Each structure stands twice: as C-alpha cells, then as structure tokens.
Amino acid sequence: MEATDELAVVIHGGCHCGKVRFQVSTKKVVDVYNCNCSICRKKQNLHFIVPDAAFKILKGEDNLTCYTFNLHKAKHLFCKSCGVQSFYKPRSNPNGYGIMPHCIDEDDAQRLKTNMKYFDGENWEKAIVVNKEILTKSNEPN
Question: Which of 34, 73, 75, 125 has the fewest C-beta atoms under 10 angstroms from its C-beta?
C-alpha cells in the first residue's frame, strides 16, 4: 500500500439540487467500480465503497426515497426533488455505502485518485467469488 493510500481525506458531495448533502472520510486513493448489473448499467453507477462509520448525511435525509428490486438487498437512495443518486447501500456491503464520485464537490474530487475496476454484476454470484475483495471494502479503515 502506498503512503498516500493510508492518508484519509474528508470529502463532501450531494445531489444536483443541493437538498441532499453528505460527508465521507476515505483514503486518497479509491477503487471505483463500474458494474454491469441491470440497474448499474442503466444509470451508469460508478461507485467506491466506504464503511458506515465513514459516511454522514449532512442534510436531506428526509428528502431521500429508496428503490429496491430482485433480492431487495441493495438500497438505491435518490433525492426526491432532482432524482440524483449520490450514494446507496450496496448488496455486497450492507454495512457500508457506495459513493458516486461524480457527486463529490469539484474541489474535493480533485484531491482523490481513482482506480477504475470492472465488476460483472450481470453475473453477480460468479463475479463476487472472483472479486472477493469487494466484500471487505466497508470493513477497511478510512
């Protein structure tokens, strides 16, 4: 692990209309997953995962709505006003959050380095066996 991986940064972000805002403490270098499952493909859900303890909703929790499907394990949270999903509870990490890097404030996003990774969510059960490291992303210290 590089020294920059261990240093935490606090970043902020939110939805398009600004009614939902969040704060995340994470490493300066994050693995961003590009998943091809049915919903991620439709909404182009790129995300990195952090533990619950590293995530805080600053405002707008009452302005979120939740969409689930199939096994109802992933909780897709959207702003009721503008429809943007800034974060969600992933099936792979129910004790963490998937954060959309494109919803991070521009100044904060410049302080992050992203490693893009592909995840074959269309074949989730097989892909999770090959990519077991994803299951520990919400357990990693940030």
Answer: 125
Which strands form 64-67's sheet, in the order they lie side by side?
64-67, 75-79, 87-89, 96-99, 46-51, 29-35, 113-119
* Residue 99 or 91, more confident: 99
Strand partners, 75: 89
Domain 3-139 CATH (choose: 2.170.150.70, 3.40.50.2000, 2.20.25.90, 1.10.238.10) = 2.170.150.70
pLDDT tens sequence across 50-68: 999 999 999 999 999 999 9
Q: Model-level pTM? A: 0.82
> Which among 133, 100, 109 is positioned nearest to 119, based on CA atoms?
133
Which residue is associated with the tokens 């210290």?
A: 141
H or E stretch including 21? strand 21-27
Domain locations in the chain? 3-139
